[in-house]
Fold:
Amino acid sequence: MIRENDITIIVSTGDPAGTGPVISVKALKHFKKNRIHLLGDRTQLERLIEKYAPEFLEKTDELLKYSESKNIDSITPSEKTGKLSFEYFENSVDLVLNNKDSVLVTAPISKELWLKGGINYKGHTDYFNKRFKNESIMFFFSENMKIALFTHHIPLKELWRYLTKNRIELFIKTLDYELNKRFKLNLKLVSGSVNPHAGEEGYLGDEEEKLIIPVLEKLNKTGMEISGPYPNDTVFFKYKDRKDIAIVSYTHDIGLSPFKLINFFTGVNLTLNIPLIRTSPDHGTGFDLVNKIDIDENSMVQSLELAIKLRENERE
Structure:
């Protein structure tokens, strides 16, 4: 359990038809001394508190200070639940921006239901990019593996349009600043590759030789510590369990496949290069799991703990 502090935790409970409301409420018992506000459907959350965290019943009004009932008759995935999850999320962002000693933790949403509900964002990261007019970084954090994604949700065929020296350099500089200067995590950076065997000195592709290596050499001359590029089929195994290493992955699936294989119920999605702290469980809505199994809240607990730690580090 995290020690008591003056940081306010704002939790957007995600799609009301998914696992988000359950894991948000179940996580409360791990943070009995922290100031937490859950944003979601008040009636649903009241029912879940009574079931999973009855010791918090006396604190319901404070916990649900920013929630109201939305008359959800049957909580099944729909355009309505997609719209509501966006409303909870956007209201949570506004609350955090208006309170400098607060952090944001977001439970899972459905990108498909956002789009079907008329929400023109391809998820949380796309929203941050457009609202703050910058390129945020998707960073995945666990004790045994840390992965930074150079590209997010793009078709693989579009990678070559993004893979330029300027973009790679800016990405790595921003990543180093966020991790080591802003949040003081003291992580060494390691670069993965694009081509099989890191291009095999150009025989299997020349992007490493022409783009990645020159940038890494330039950055190392400035005093930044980043090694690679290493072949993707070995880099994750080599640096697994190294708590002091963050690996740069140039595509979404290359980075997240090994990460989720090892950390599906413990990983945290951290958004970097935005003017607030935002973390999220590294799993989806689990529409097919609600009311069928005992939903594990560990990833939500890890998300809350990391958000608090980063805010404390940022204030030092």
Notes: The chain has two domains: 1-134+274-316, 137-273.
